[in-house]
Amino acid sequence: MSESLPPYSSGQCTFFWLLWLLGWGVCLAYIFALVFLVLYTKIDLASVFSTLPSALFTAWNLLAIGTQCYLLVQSARFLSRHEKPMSELLLRVFMAGIVVPNIAVSGCFMAGSFLQRMAV
Asked: How do the domains of the chain map onto residue ranges?
């Protein structure tokens, strides 16, 4: 399949790697936030998963981190093997760096507001 794809331009590759680094930066920020929540606020894992809202938010953020890591690793692999067109690769890293974090944050906000209404 790599014979039928046109070569990637240097501008496209530069834009790809900038988005790729942005995606890893956001992913590391999520990991840091979870580690900060668990370790530095003296919350043990049993109490994090004992209540429904904490378990829900933790699972949701872990799902977002896993999705970002998968998309970023796969897109770098596809770029190095020249298996996918550049438009698809840019879409993948854009989704990993911008779309998935926005979905994760909005999901936490929606679940938080829903749980606040249930508590009232």
From this structure: 10-119
